[in-house]
Design a protein that fits this description.
By secondary structure, this protein is an alpha+beta fold. It contains six helices and six strands; from the N terminus they run H-E-E-E-H-E-E-H-E-H-H-H. The longest helix has 21 residues.
Length: 181
């Protein structure tokens, strides 16, 4: 699905950040988001090798894992749901496992984007590599917009404030009633 890439592209487009090949297995660009200087990075590896690209980007910039925000899809969350955490395990996510292994820590923030589970009979690998169905497009576009806003909030107000807003809204989407802002 590469939904994380859609969020990074949305951030780049919204802030005029141009992404180009880095000195490793990634593309990157530098600019300002919410008054903070950032480097956006898109790994050019397969998901299960994304740790190599993140490690290379950190070596190039001198940033620490705690200064990274990993944005990734999550089949364990329903389509459209967001979950922001300051650290934690991979939770079965091969990309996060690769990053944890290469960085030697679980201590980096991550924004998980719900893509749901494959329909019965579909293979997981085919599902996550496939495009979203036309019927899912509006939900995906709305999720990407909320994820871009979540990143901006995190940069402006910090991880704690962003988690309060993002995860509260996420929890509201699990219920039956309308969301309250």
């Amino acid at each position: 699905h590469n939904v994380g890439f859609l969020v990074v592209a949305g951030l780049a487009d919204g802030c005029g950040i141009r992404l180009s090949a880095g000195r490793g297995d990634f593309m990157s660009g530098v600019g300002q988001i919410a008054g903070t200087r950032v480097r956006l990075v898109m790994p050019l590896t397969y998901m299960n090798g994304s740790g190599r690209a993140v490690e290379q980007a950190l070596e190039e910039t001198g940033a620490t894992p705690a200064e990274v925000l990993v944005i990734c899809d999550d089949v364990n969350l329903p389509l459209g749901q967001l979950r922001l955490r300051g650290s934690g395990s991979a939770g079965g996510h091969k990309g996060l496992s690769s990053i944890i292994e290469r960085l030697g820590t679980e201590g980096f923030p991550r924004l998980r984007l719900g893509v749901g589970r494959p329909p019965d009979g579909d293979e997981m690998v085919d599902f996550v590599l496939d495009r979203f169905a036309d019927t899912e497009r509006l939900d995906v576009d709305e999720m990407v917009s909320r994820a871009v806003a979540a990143v901006e909030l995190l940069l402006r107000d910090g991880i704690g404030a962003a988690m309060t807003v993002v995860n509260r809204r996420t929890d509201a989407t699990e219920g039956e009633g309308p969301q309250e802002d």
